[in-house]
Design a protein that fits this description.
Strand content of chain B: 5-15%
Oligomer: heterodimer
Order of helices and strands of chain A: HEHEHEHHEEEHEEEHHEEHHE
Largest sheet of chain B: 2 strands, antiparallel
Helix content of chain B: 40-55%
Mean pLDDT of chain A: 92
Number of helices of chain B: 24
Distance between the termini of chain A: 45 Å
Distance between the termini of chain B: 51 Å
Shape of chain A: globular
Radius of gyration of chain B: 27 Å
Largest interface: A-B, 37 and 35 residues
Largest sheet of chain A: 10 strands, mixed
Shape of chain B: elongated
Number of helices of chain A: 10
């Protein structure tokens, strides 16, 4: 099997794995919200309310956890995914029998500093079979996307080949898209000149999310950044919310997280576009919310 | 090479040198050990030229002054026991077949060279670092060997991936070790790589003519130490080659061009004591035994003095022209405020360039005039200044880049960004973008934007976010220019804040 076949197979398996969910989940998007100050506990609660991690992660699976580690900021600035949330998810995956948990992001600032100062390095150190990986140039594969905005793009091989992809963004402000949430978090598996997609952000994000499905979305809303995103830098822009949102429906998760900012899902063009293109449910009335 | 005390010392210091070199890199901590630039701190040539050019004293160069004093007492031990370039020359020299020594080097040339550099420093142009042996070595490593080494290892690792795919992960731990502790994090190509290599290679090639050719006939640091060693408290006895043996002439790497020992060239390797068949050779205090009037050749004769005064002045003043156009983009590392001050202090050692996280610093050729060669310039399109990083200031041996606390560094201004509305998408194409605003690290954003309701060129109504710079907040860190998604020329560029004198330049 050459690389191209391998990729096709990998991509199509991801696509088919996600397909039944789209067909059967229509109208019954479920989402869980958990609140509290013990961030590891509320993360577990949110996942358990969806039926537990073992619903997603089977024995021997390779799991990719994709946090938002885009910036060289300490956790209190709410620019990067909270390390306790990440650690709890990684531990759950291992408990469910995952063979390997890979955690990585393609940061905007120096990747070493981002991993270190976001607290991720410290939090994941010593966890068996959990790897915080530096992304490597040679692992980006040119993938045919045939989307509305993007025809093809370099995507990260390890994200494509994973058995389970868990999308763990932090909810925060962004000047162009107003908010950056799970749909936008997928930029982290993109290589090349990512700034290019700012020219047509909404369609581009839907294109990428159509190609790579998030099997589980966990939005870190323990602290959210209200202004001067996506990297902030001032505690005045940070609001402590103490919430974690989990769902298998990426649009629903984003739509719900939007309300934490006092906005409506319709205000976020990326969410609306994704909804229109069948990536999930955005009407809050049609989403089943479990308070966990 | 025979194992003698000096050899062991040389190898230990060479090892230390390499360890320090490799550790001049971010390793997960915001603080980097002050030891990484020890070889420059303890360098008398760096210290003297700093004193002459700035006419002020700083604690940073105290170790260099101490080394100065030690050399005054003990002699030129640095060259034979410590200097890593000297050690590398020793490692090579036996493999290189010698032909006759170069005659023109056997004059007072080295003194002209040293004093020209020192006089130029006195006239505010500190170019000693261009020919400082430690700087030559560090630059050859930083710009040439280390990137090449990193690149080839990386190439092998990448090649493995195309062969093994994800199976490569089984041996990932080996690469991870290399990557985390040995290799450069990012591959960079440096503009002066070849020249830096050439300078180093020439020094090795000089060994074709005689042993330690660079050290005894050219090296300005060696020459300086040689001058000091004339006053040292030790002398080697006998002072001449013994008539019945003359073997010292073959053993000694530096000091026996003639029958009389040249004290200023003796690097105290002690080979002659160890190898003397008759046990005649010893080093003893000048106070012991008979005092004989020593006849040392006058080096700082009138001719050398006046000659190097003139050439130093010529060097300092005749190349002073700097193109105003180049100056617009002449950006210096954070904290380096006045260009003139910076040039007086900078050793051109390459440490800041080596340590720069995002490869924002590059060695200059002519941007800051002839004597800017090898000084660090900041090129934002190639790399940007990381907001939370002040490593360059931490490793600078002379404070040319001040070691500012991080909160201060975040505010130090390198330049100011300016938009080119003919290129910037919201202005030029009526398409939203503001990647620059997203990346701006200043907490309140030095790049802001205004909303503008317009029709795009297809007639569709659009709300454009048009960026502008808040000059009072912009530090010129360059991330906007670096990340601007326009291929080729960036639509936002950082320009130096140049204060114009009445002559226009400088």
């Amino acid at each position: 099997m050459d690389r191209r076949d391998f990729l096709k197979l990998g991509l199509s398996s991801i696509f088919f794995a996600g397909l039944p969910k789209i067909i059967f989940a229509q109208g019954t998007s479920t989402l869980s919200v958990s609140e509290g100050k013990d961030y590891a506990a509320i993360t577990r609660n949110a996942i358990n309310a969806l039926g537990g991690i073992q619903k997603f992660v089977k024995k021997g699976d390779v799991v990719v956890i994709k946090p938002n580690l885009g910036w060289d900021r300490k956790p209190e600035y709410a620019a990067t995914t909270n390390p306790f949330v990440l650690k709890a998810i990684a531990e759950e995956c291992i408990k469910a029998g995952a063979k390997k948990v890979k955690v990585f992001d393609n940061p905007c600032n120096d990747p070493r500093r981002c991993y270190e100062n976001s607290g991720t390095n410290g939090a994941l150190k010593g966890l068996k079979d959990v790897e915080l990986k530096q992304m490597e140039d040679e692992r980006y594969k040119n993938v045919r996307i045939n989307g509305v905005a993007l025809k093809e793009w370099e995507l990260y091989d390890e994200a494509l080949s994973a058995n389970v992809f868990i999308n763990v963004p932090i909810a925060k402000h962004h000047s162009l898209t107003r908010l950056t949430l799970a749909l936008k978090n997928m930029m982290g598996i993109m290589g090349g000149n990512r700034g290019y997609i700012h020219r047509n952000m909404e369609d581009s994000l839907s294109d990428i999310n159509k190609v790579v499905k998030s099997h589980l979305v966990v939005i870190d809303a323990t602290r959210i950044l209200l202004n001067h995103g996506p990297q902030g830098g001032s505690l005045n822009d940070v609001k402590v919310v103490n919430k974690v949102i989990a769902s298998t429906d990426i649009v629903a998760a984003d739509a719900y997280a939007t309300t934490l900012f006092g906005l409506n899902p319709q205000d976020i063009a990326a969410t609306v576009t994704a909804y229109k293109r069948g990536l999930g449910e955005m009407n809050l009335s049609k989403i089943k919310v479990i308070k966990a | 090479m025979k194992i003698t005390s000096s050899r062991i010392s040389q190898l230990i210091f060479l090892a230390i040198f390499f360890v320090l070199f490799i550790n001049t890199e971010y390793r997960g901590k915001d603080e980097i050990s002050a030891a990484v630039n020890s070889f420059f701190r303890a360098n008398p040539l760096v210290a003297i030229s700093y004193l002459l050019s700035t006419k002020t004293m700083t604690l940073l160069i105290l170790p260099g002054i101490l080394m100065f004093v030690f050399s005054l007492l003990l002699g030129r031990f640095f060259c034979g026991w410590i200097c890593p370039l000297g050690t590398i020359i020793d490692l090579f020299t036996n493999r290189i077949k010698k032909i006759l020594p170069l005659k023109f080097l056997k004059t007072t040339f080295k003194y002209y060279l040293l004093f020209t550099l020192l006089f130029a420093a006195l006239f505010n142009i500190n170019m000693a670092g261009v020919l400082d042996p430690i700087a030559i070595l560090v630059r050859a490593l930083t710009f040439f060997f280390y990137p090449l080494f990193g690149h080839s290892v990386k190439l092998g690792w990448t090649g493995l991936y195309s062969l093994m795919g994800d199976n490569r992960d089984h041996i990932d731990f080996m690469y991870a070790f290399l990557r985390d502790y040995i290799l450069p994090f990012r591959d960079t190509l440096y503009p002066l790589a070849f020249i830096s290599f050439l300078l180093f290679a020439l020094i090795i090639l000089l060994e074709r003519y005689e042993e330690r050719n660079w050290c005894k006939n050219l090296c300005p640091l060696g020459t300086l130490l040689g001058l000091l060693s004339r006053f040292s408290l030790f002398r080697r006895l006998p002072k001449k080659l013994c008539a019945d043996c003359r073997e010292c002439k073959n053993i000694c790497p530096t000091a026996f061009d003639e029958d009389i020992l040249q004290k200023q060239d003796c690097i105290l390797c002690m080979d002659c004591t160890l190898k003397c068949k008759f046990n005649r050779v010893k080093f003893s205090s000048v106070f012991k035994g008979r005092r004989t009037k020593e006849k040392t050749p006058v080096v700082l004769g009138r001719r050398v003095f006046l000659g190097s005064l003139l050439s130093g002045f010529f060097l300092a003043k005749s190349f002073a022209f700097q193109s105003p156009r180049e100056q617009e983009r002449l950006l210096r590392p954070p904290g380096a405020q006045k260009e003139g001050e910076f040039l007086k202090k900078c050793v051109r050692c390459g440490e800041c360039i080596k340590v720069c996280l995002r490869n924002a610093l590059y060695p200059d050729l002519f941007k800051s005039g002839f004597y800017g060669m090898f000084t660090p310039v900041f090129i934002p399109r190639l790399g940007y200044c990381e907001y939370n990083c002040n490593l360059c200031g931490q490793v600078c041996p002379t404070g040319a880049i001040p070691n500012q606390p991080i909160e201060e560094k975040k505010k130090s201004v390198m330049g100011v960004a300016v938009f080119d509305k003919n290129l910037c998408l919201p202005y030029a194409k009526k398409i939203n973008c503001i990647v620059c605003e997203e990346h701006c690290p200043v907490p309140g954003k030095a790049i802001k934007f205004e909303l503008s309701e317009e029709r795009d060129y297809t007639g569709k109504k659009v709300t454009l976010k048009r960026p502008y710079i808040a000059d009072e907040l912009c530090t010129g860190c360059g991330i906007c220019e670096n990340k601007c998604p326009l291929e080729g020329k960036s639509a936002v560029e950082v320009f130096a804040k140049v204060k114009k004198s009445k002559h226009g330049a400088q």
